[in-house]
């Protein structure tokens, strides 16, 4: 662990991780909560995201305007996000204003009042956000893909939730979700840049040290299922998204999965881009990604193409996946490995990136692996490992698929599964 990085755990399980970055005048700071959409019961779907919105709508000592002004008056930036396993509240400020940023963030996390009038106003905002997402094909197709990959499971549901659920949430529902999932041992305070660890530990003790641990229900284990979701509509583009069951971020093969995905469809030099766009002109955009959760993961492929080309594109994707198991080269693996290392190292020049990475690592592992350790693991991934990983994606696996637009010519998921197994 870097000498500039320090971790302290309070008696109640609340953790503080800081990383000093010499030469910077600014800092990023935030609270990461180990709870998100996946922690919701069916009747709660969308409440974690609703709660994130409401955090900015007033506390016991600040109005909604005062929350915004407190950070913007010092030239800072305040925001939040909700994912399937995490909710984060964070700010970027000058180093001298870190205590102020901590005060605002801890205030919105601990003392939001959920004024009924504000609840109704924000309900309208979120319903508009849901409507906007449904009007954005390359967003909604991924929600459908997640749903058919993990049907009838919390991990498969949308972050925003369905409109009918959002319309029903009450102030009490929001308070109950906090009571269930915002325990001190479910939260990490992370800061990077011009920060003082001892100062933040003292502030955290005063603000969070009184909280008591609370029992939590284990996550429902994810079970991948092959399926498809098709919506035929007269759009300019056919939106094609496919997912194959992969490994979670705690699995030994996670770095292999990431290097495979990068070589397969991660950039302009990747196999998918070269074959589908450059050689055959089947699409404008196409890419793959390796996404991980605590217990599972997905290799996801997306492309936007014409209705006339979507069938050829779907078949090509399967064929290239199979071919990669036999013909992936050392040069491709080396390029993907180098791209990943460069992207990671360049990203970590930002205090915001370091702040988030440290929070995620502490949540997952209870520590922050050194960059040397991560680079070493990436360097251990060789061409045989990548080929074997690709072969495993083709054996006994049936993909999931979501389609939107002029997609009537696209093969069924059963046809593509047979092509993959052939």
Walkthrough of the structure:
By secondary structure, the protein is of the alpha+beta class. It has helices at residues 47-54, 64-72, 98-111, 116-134, 137-149, 163-166, 171-181, 197-208, 254-265, 271-279, 310-327, 330-347, 351-365, 371-379, 383-394, 413-421, and strands at residues 5-9, 15-20, 26-33, 77-82, 87-94, 187-193, 228-232, 238-246, 283-292, 297-305, 400-405. The longest helix has 19 residues, at 116-134. The protein is globular, with a radius of gyration of 23 Å.
In short, what is this structure?
With 422 residues, the protein is of the alpha+beta class. It is built from 16 helices and eleven strands. The strands form two sheets. A six-stranded mixed sheet has the order 1-2-6-3-5-4, sandwiched between helices. A five-stranded mixed sheet has the order 7-11-8-10-9, with helices on both faces.
Annotation, overall tally of beta strands = 11
Average pLDDT taken over every residue:
95
* Sheet with most strands: strand arrangement: 1-2-6-3-5-4
Helix content: 40-55%
Structural class comes to: alpha+beta
Strand content: 15-25%
SSE pattern: EEEHHEEHHHHHEHEEHHEEHHHHHEH
What composes the largest sheet?
Answer: 6 strands, mixed
Q: Specify the overall morphology.
A: globular
The residue ranges in which pLDDT falls below 50 over 5 or more consecutive positions are none
Sum up the structure in keywords.
5-stranded mixed β-sheet; 16 helices; alpha+beta
Any chance you could write out the topology, listing elements then pairs?
Layout: E1 5-9, E2 15-20, E3 26-33, H1 47-54, H2 64-72, E4 77-82, E5 87-94, H3 98-111, H4 116-134, H5 137-149, H6 163-166, H7 171-181, E6 187-193, H8 197-208, E7 228-232, E8 238-246, H9 254-265, H10 271-279, E9 283-292, E10 297-305, H11 310-327, H12 330-347, H13 351-365, H14 371-379, H15 383-394, E11 400-405, H16 413-421
Helix pairs in contact: 1-7, 3-8, 9-12, 9-15, 10-11, 11-15, 12-14
